[in-house]
Specification:
Length: 303
């Protein structure tokens, strides 16, 4: 029997580059939430895939950007920590946006975070949105800026190029025993996954800054005798006015969010669930260590 391989692959890039979409495509299941808005992912999320004899532990990370708030700083620190632990790194760049100031800043900071000798691949994503000439020029430009081990042209959403990238990553990982049981695809606790699903539905329905000013926590999870789960979640918002918006006219918004989240959580846990959402105003939630812990972030990273 040939030796097994195993290791961590950090997916990094600007917000909205398609990291979580790629993670889900690699794993073949929805492990990390996806929205059209920036800064959707707030902490490192692992998803496990098998390829040949290799177990690839993909690490989805928050987008890298110039942080302003404490939460932003903690998210960016969490992403770089993912790179520091990685056996291989995939830098994702959006094809249609190209070499932005943000991409330049990432390239500048990259070297001080990648472990010596670890491969970094470039994945130009969303190739379904641009012409072939654009891709060739962008590939050349980015490879002039840094010597990437390999460049992959992919569409995480449509699946183009994803299998090639996966194969290459599997071969790049060090030999070693698998870290997870063969059938495990994620390691986020269910209560956190369930909170993320609700946050995704809220983010999709709310506009402008509001998604960035709320967080969702699962406060209570009860297995019922009839085989269903009773789940209570709290949506923390910073202002009274936000509470009204989250609730919506006669509670219409929160009701719709609850219905969508319940359906997806039921699918995830493969049994019926009763979801109860409460909106709580907490002016300082963005400065509370407990909230960061619940999100999987290090509060002191935000200093
Ligand atoms: N057209 C197209 N859209 C894509 C592709 N990959 C991802 N998207 C879309 O891009 C948006 C952002 O995707 P995410 O996977 O949430 O991006 P992310 O990098 O995880 O973003 P953050 O978590 O905010 O850093 C979503 O609307 C996706 O559906 C792709 O290959 N083609
Ligand atoms: Mg994401």
């Amino acid at each position: 029997m040939s030796a097994t391989r195993c290791g961590f692959v950090a997916l990094i890039g600007e917000p909205n580059a398609g990291k979580s979409t790629l993670l889900n495509a690699m794993v073949g299941a929805k492990v990390s939430i996806v929205t059209h808005k920036v800064q959707t992912t707030r902490t490192r999320i692992r998803g496990v895939a098998l390829e040949g004899g290799a177990q690839i532990v993909f690490v989805d990370t928050p987008g890298l950007f110039q942080p302003r708030r404490r939460l932003d700083r903690a998210m960016v620190a969490s992403a770089w920590a993912g790179v520091e632990d990685a056996d291989a790194v995939v830098l994702m760049v959006e094809a249609q946006r190209g070499v932005t100031e943000g991409v330049k800043a990432i390239l500048e900071a990259l070297e001080s975070h990648v472990r010596p000798g670890k491969p970094v691949a470039l994945a130009i994503n969303k190739i379904d949105r641009v012409k072939r000439e654009t891709l060739l020029a962008l590939t050349a430009d980015l490879n002039d800026r840094r010597a990437f081990e390999r460049t992959f042209l992919i569409s995480a959403q449509k699946g183009h190029g994803v299998a090639d990238l996966k194969r290459w990553l599997a071969e790049s990982l060090p030999e070693g025993p698998w870290l997870y049981p063969e059938d495990q695809i994620a390691d986020l606790p269910l209560r956190m996954l369930a909170a993320e699903i609700t946050r995704e539905k809220l983010t999709l329905r709310l506009h402008q800054e509001l998604p960035y000013q709320l967080t969702v926590e699962t406060e209570n999870w009860e297995e019922r005798k009839d085989g269903s789960a009773r789940i209570e979640q709290v949506v923390y918002v910073a202002r009274d006015g936000h509470k009204g918006i989250v609730l919506g006219n006669k509670g219409a918004t929160i009701k719709a969010v609850g219905a969508e989240a319940r359906a997806e959580i039921s699918k995830l846990i493969e049994r019926p669930c009763h979801l109860f959402l409460t909106v709580r105003v907490r002016p300082n939630w963005l400065d509370e260590p407990e909230r960061y812990r619940e999100m999987g972030l290090d509060f002191s990273d935000g200093n």
